[in-house]
Structures are given as structure tokens and as C-alpha cells.
Amino acid sequence: MANKATVTRSNDTSRRTLTSPLKWAGGKRWIVPTLREHFEPYKGSRLVEPFCGGLSVALGLEPKTALLNDINPLLMGFYKNLKRGLDINLRVKNDEGYYYRMRERLNRHLRAKRFDDPEASALFLALNKSCFNGLVRFSVDKETGVMRFNVPFGKYSSINIPSDLSEYKTALRGWSLSCKDFARLSIRSSDILYLDPPYDHQGTGFTEYAGGKFSWEDQVRLAHWAVSHNVPTIISNHNTPRIRELYRDLGFTLSTVKVRRSIGAKSRKSASEIIATSL
To answer: What's the confidence (pLDDT) of residue 170?
Structure first.
């Protein structure tokens, strides 16, 4: 039997809301109700997400128009195929050897830069549902720039791969997709920005982002880029002292919210996240 896309109900019981088709570390499904309160006065505006990630925010807010961007070409190729209508024709086995054969098939697509090949997208979804903790993690060869999906097998008791993704084709209609550095996005004066950059891990040295780096200098560059457009802006990030100082010094209003960070562990610890607004 085909598995349907996951659907939840919003506070309006007459409305069905799609959740992310992917397992996604740092996904924002938990704070969509908070973001919706900020977004409501601007619901006629185009939503721009430079770091759309697992797509939970756009699916939760349901804007009529949106520009969704991420620097990960495989991720954006997956969303392009969802928008076209992606069929999952894989017979996925809950088997470690089979998993690594799927991973190598995907990595062959990545070596050839076939990021939006339908088979690459299907393999990406299957690996995401069956890899360790549902991680999306890549290494990048410094000389060639070739991405490689490197997450090990997850050893689940069962694997649930949705084969019917037709509802996402409808949801993505009217939304534009791009894959570039945030600073290259064209922002209109009527837009609203939602920025969910890689977390600031102050003191840990962790700066990985889509197989590359997202440094403190990038955090600062992003914050100043957002302010330069003078449009309504919402930013979420890890609640660290320097993040609070950065956003406060740029005139943002700060609040905090508790979020769930773990996506695969049995124990889901809550953590504090900053919501910075300039509305």
C-alpha cells in the first residue's frame, strides 16, 4: 500500500498542513505557530527563505508566493522534482548492504553533478529515511568540489518511505526555487524575509553547512544583508551571547522559544532559540 505524505492539522481544524517530506536536523515545525503570529500581517507578501532546509516553515505558513533557496544543490533538486511530480519507484530494503549500494548510486549522481535527476531525488529521500538519525550530511572534496553523502546506515526496526508525494506538487505550485548564496537573491520591497541560518555554535568550532562552512563572519554578513533591504524580517538562531548582541545592535526585537533539537534519538532535549524580528 502506498504511504501518503504526512499531514498535520493547524489550529484551524478545517485546514490540513503538510509537514516536511524529509527528516531534518534543526527543522522548524515546532516553532511554526510562533512564526505564524509574526507572518499573519504580511500573509499577502512573498515569503523569502534563503535557508529553506526541510521546508517546514513554508509548508506551515502556506504563503501564496515564495522564493525558497538553499545552497545545497541536491536538496533543491529534490524540491524541483517534488514540484514537477516525483514518483518513488524504489523497492527499499531495511538492509545495511542494500543501504550502502543505494548510497553509492546517489554518490555517482553527485560526482556527475546530476543534482535534479529524478533517481537522485528518490535515492536521497530513501537514504534520508533510513540513514543514522535521519541526518543530511555531506563531505566535499577540496580539490574537485564533489559532494559525497556520507551518513551511515540507521538500523531502524522498519523504514517508511512515502510513495505518494502528489500533495507536495500542489503545495509547491506558485513557489520559486533557487540554489545560490543568500547575498545573490533578489529581494523586493514588498517581501518578508525568514532567515534560519546554520546555528551559531559559539565555542564549539562547529560550522558545517551543506558540506562547507558557515562561519561567524557569515553570520554577521547575513544579519547586515538582511538589515540592508529594510523589509519585514524574522530570524531564528541558537541562543548564544554573541547572536543576542549581533541582532540587538542591529535593532532587532528579541524573544526566545524552546525547541526540540534531536530528530532521531529516543530522548528529545529542549533548547533555547532566539527569534529576532524587525517588522
So the answer is: 94
**Separation of alpha carbons 201 and 94, rounded Å:** 34
Number of separate domains in the chain = 2
Q: 201 pLDDT band (50/70/90 cuts)?
A: confident
Residue pair 163/129 in contact (Cβ under 8 Å)? The answer is: no
Measured between alpha carbons, how far is 36 from 274 in angstroms, rounded to an integer?
16
pLDDT at 16: 63
- What pLDDT is stored for residue 203 in this prediction? 52
Contact 103, 137 (CB under 8 A): no
Q: Does the pLDDT value for residue 113 go beyond 60? A: yes
Domain that holds residue 138: 80-149
Residues 277 and 188: their CA atoms lie apart, in Å, by: 18
The answer to whether residues 35 and 122 belong to one domain is no
Last residue of a domain, one of 95, 122, 149: 149
Q: How many helices (H) and strands (E) does the chain have?
A: 8, 13
Sheet holding 253-260, edge to edge: 175-178, 66-69, 47-49, 192-195, 233-238, 270-278, 253-260
Angle between helices 118-130 and 96-111 (to 10 degrees): 140
| Residue 1, domain member (yes or no) | no
- Residue 268, all three cell numbers: 528529545
63 and 176 both lie in a single domain: yes
Residue 161 lies in a domain: no
Q: How far apart are CA 44 and CA 191, in angstroms?
A: 9
The last residue of one of the domains, among 123, 149, 175, is 149
Q: Average pLDDT of the chain?
A: 89
* Span 130-150, pLDDT tens digits: 999 989 999 998 889 899 999
For position 262, what pLDDT does the model report? 55
- Listing DSSP states for 202-224 in one string gives TTT---EETTEE--HHHHHHHHH
